[in-house]
Structures are given as structure tokens and as C-alpha cells.
Hints:
There is one protein chain. By secondary structure, the chain is α/β, with parallel strands linked by helices. The protein has a single domain, classed as Alpha-Beta Barrel (TIM Barrel). The protein is 42% helix and 14% strand. The chain has 15 helices and 13 strands. It has helices spanning 4-8, 51-59, 72-76, 78-87, 94-97, 110-123, 143-150, 170-187, 203-213, 249-259, 276-285, 294-299, 303-317, 338-352, 357-369, and strands spanning 29-31, 34-36, 40-45, 64-67, 70-71, 128-133, 154-158, 192-196, 217-220, 228-230, 235-237, 266-270, 289-292. β3 (40-45), α2 and β4 (64-67) form a beta-alpha-beta unit. α8 (170-187) packs parallel to α9, α10 (249-259) runs parallel beside α11 (276-285) and α11 crosses α13 (303-317). The N and C termini lie far apart (55 Å). The model is unreliable at 1-21 and 82-101 (pLDDT under 50).
Amino acid sequence: MKDLNAIRNDSIPPHESPAPTPEGPSLRTIYLGLDLDSPLVVGASPLCDNLGTVRCLEDYGASAIVMHSLFEEQITGEQLASIYVMESIAGAYAEARSYFPRADDYKLGPDQYLEQIQRIKRAVNMPCIASLNGTTTGGWMNYARYIEQAGADALELNIYHIPTDPNETGEQVESNLVEIVKQVRAAIKIPIAVKLGPFFSSIANLAGKLELAGANGLVLFNRFYQPDICIADQTAMPNLHLSEAGETLLLRLRWLAILSKRFNLSLACSGGVHSAEDVIKAVMCGANAVQLVSVLLKNGPAVLMRIKKEIVDTLKALEYRSIEQIQGSMSMINCPDPRTFERGNYMRILQSWRPDRAWTQDVTLKSLGSR
């Protein structure tokens, strides 16, 4: 795995731009109204912090970049202030306090975040998508205006909320999310994508509500990083696990196929994409864009060139003229009764599974010997 410090280092040596993709099928796509050279979008990550890295990503084939999130807590300062008060109470709830970040844990403060948007816009031609992460309605959402004024081409709303209050209903969680989107839409004109988690009770219904609230697209799905616990000193430990090939992609493919062409929303696949095959599957299921993060953090920007070439080679071998021809080809909109189709597949998968022959033979022999 690449050293992240090296990726962030501003003194990246000069590099030769990779050779252009050979003439072949077009990879152009429209995402959030943005005309992209390909579906390959760099997802929210620390890769946006260094201009040398951003230039490398564009040179090797990225069509857009999503900045890591600016957090509600950074903007309001209210929750951080309460954290500092808690830290002054020596010994009180030490294990709970270990979950919260300190102010210096954030890479870019609000002002620096806006400045970085401007730097990226000056450094590269690909669109820059900013990201806001919050959970409540309030003044922090006005910061979306500053992000628009700084030059961001679009805004990704990352509503990372874990409903721990037993009195908070699912309807309240969804209503809060929809209200946030409404208020942000009232503040800005640039496109808005909403990054969802996979745990809503009716994602398709929520998608329709978000479209009516003013969203232009959905990102499926957010990965909820789970802190681990140190049993020795009873503290929470950050646990960042980069995705592996095939680990989380199938859930995304299912919901892309369910939502594709049912709403006037752009769709982005986020999580578990590591290869050209993954990208093609996501596009077939309905993705307009595919966000890559873990594969880039592990292998560096150059992996984009290989993935892009393999996409072109695959489309050429299948005699497609453009990636647009396969976009949404596996959408469930073409299925007359999606619920029956889903349940039929579920039953077929369960009935087709068979235990491993090696251990079943051993069990059979022992069973015969006991008679």
C-alpha cells in the first residue's frame, strides 16, 4: 500500500503525462449535469489535499474529483466547544470521550477548505465537487453559498447520521434529511448530490422525496466506518478499513438497478470499485459516475490509466461504440415485476447452495460408522 504521507507531500517530483487513451468507444457521461470524459470520479478522500496529486489524477484519467467533507462541527464550533468542556472534566467518561476528534485532527478548516477549492479549480480542468457533512438543520448549511462562490462545480451532501435515540422514528430521520436538502437547495444553484447510507427502510421512496426537495443525484452508498474498542483501557480506536475487491459492490449494484431510470436523478456508485469490470457492472446497473477511493489509496493515481484502458478494450471487444449504450441496461425498470424478480432470485440462490463435498463425505462416513 502506498504511503499516504507520500501522496500528500507537496514536493511530488515532476512526472510525464501518460499517453492518451487509444481511439475507441467513447466513455463520455453526464453526471449532475456535468459533461465528464468518463465515469471515473475520484471519491471523497485526502487525495484532494495536494495539488500535485490532483494533477496526477487528472493526467491519468480522472474525470472529476470529490473533496473530503467539511464537517458541520467545524463550521459551527458548538459541538467542539462542548467536547472541550468535557475534556476539562478529568476522568469523567473517558471511554466515551475517546470517540470525538480534536480540532487539530481536521486537515482543512473552513477557510482553508474554500481556498483549496480555488486552488484545485486553477490547477486542473476537471470538475471539483465539494462535500458537506452534517446531520442537523442550521446555520452551517449557509456555508454551501461560500462553497459555490469559491467555484465548486457541484456539492455532495454527506448526511452521516446514526440514530441512537430510541424515541427518534425512521420518519423523523428521513424528514430531517429532506429538510436539509431543501434548505441547501434554497441557498445554492449548483447541482446537489446526496450521499446515502444503505439502512433506510425504503430507499426508493426516499429517493423520490429527495428529488422533490431539490437533489440532482444520489451517491450509493456511504460506508459507515466502525470504531474498534481497546479492551485494556476501554477507549474507542479509529478503525479505517479500505474496501477490498468484491467486498461491498453487490449491494450498490442492486440499488443502482432498482433506482435507475425511475427518477430524474444522476446516480453514482461509491464503495468497492476496484477494476474495469466493477465500473462496467455499475454503469450497466445505472451509474452515471463511479467513485474510486480505496484502489487509488492502495495503488496510486496511475491505476486509473489501466482501468480506463481496460474499459475501452472491453467495450471494443463487445462492439459497443460508447459507454452510454450500456448505461442502465441492467436496470430493473425493464423488469415487469421487480418484487417478484427479486424474491425469485432470492429463493433460487438459497436452493442452489450445496455444502462442500469434502466435509459432507466425512460426516456421512462417521454417520455410517456409528450405526
